[in-house]
Amino acid sequence: MSEQPSLLDDSVNALRRLMPRRFRSDIPTVPVVRLSGTIGFSTPLRPGLTLSSCAKALERAFNRPRAKAVALAINSPGGSAVQSHLIFKRIRQLAEEKAIPVIAFVEDVGASGGYMIACAADEIIVDETSIVGSIGVVGGSFGLHKLLDKIGVERRLYTAGDHKAMLDPFLPENPEDVARLKAIQQEIHESFIALVKARRGPALALGQDDLFSGAYWTGRKAIELGLADHIGDLRSTLRARFGDKVDTPLITSPRSFFGRNTGGIGIGKIWPSDGPSLAADIVSTVEARAIWARFGL
């Protein structure tokens, strides 16, 4: 009598070991979504991080059968405030719909919009040398009107609307336009601050004068300020919490026949000749490089 259950158990265990890991109920699963790069700065050859580029991967991760949590591997210096907020909101929507906890792992940088996305997680884990924070808003341009004067080029611009040519780099700077831009930046900054306070709650060291000044810190200091929770890395943290056998599949967006991410509406066209001009591509790449450079990378 005692041998039959043992033989049955052995047979079941043997069959279970032959099954793919994703279908085994005895192995915990934590899908991983990598969110990397500057946010919103997309070119045909260097696609940036946008909601359309990561939405399908996020949905696949949260729909993974028997997922114990969803891990976000974040490495971003920020970029577009709108795209950062859209990605943040999508993560929160999925987490609440599926009742699945979210853990963010910040690698080199989780700053500005990258930090906003990290705030969508229930827990933020960093390396002790990660760059974290930069809760602020920045915008920049060039003033080229003196160069045009020097080379003898006249700027001709025709608009309907007093502010349609606001901050045109080929025109002298208008103090009223600058004041208008700063008012918009202040409004966005206040929304960012409110989001961080709502997500991080009482953990924040609100007495710190420069917490929301746009300053940034190492991961260890970020923990002291309440911007992050623990020092760690993705593999060791998930193994410690879910066991050595935890399955951590990397979830990516579906790819087209040509090997490119299919993304969603607005992802852009496949062929460079159909997309932005070479000049726009170069400018976008330089801008993205400048964002990384602000953090010494």
Defining traits:
297 residues; alpha/beta; 2-enoyl-CoA Hydratase, Chain A, domain 1; seven-stranded mixed beta sheet; 9 helices
Care to describe what's here?
The chain is an alpha/beta fold and about 300 residues long. The protein has a single domain (about 30-135, about 190-295), classed as 2-enoyl-CoA Hydratase, Chain A, domain 1, CATH 3.90.226.10. The chain contains nine helices and seven strands. Strands 1, 2, 3, 4, 5, 6 and 7 form a seven-stranded mixed sheet that branches. The protein is elongated. It starts with a helix and ends with a helix. The model is unreliable at about 260-275 (pLDDT under 50).
Find the CATH topology: 2-enoyl-CoA Hydratase, Chain A, domain 1
Oligomeric state of this protein: single chain
The largest sheet, given as strand count, sense and whether it forms a barrel, is: 7 strands, mixed
Give a count of the beta strands, DSSP E runs of length 2 or more: 7
In the CATH hierarchy, what is the architecture at level 2? Alpha-Beta Complex
Assign an overall shape. Answer: elongated
Strand content: 5-15%
Helix fraction bin: 25-40%
Query: Overall mean pLDDT score?
Result: 82
Q: Summarize the helix and strand pattern as letters.
A: HEHEHEHEEHHEHEHH
Structural class: alpha/beta
- Rg over C-alpha atoms, rounded to the nearest angstrom: 24 Å
Question: Would you identify the CATH H-level superfamily?
Answer: 2-enoyl-CoA Hydratase, Chain A, domain 1
Number of domains: 1
Tally of individual helices: 9
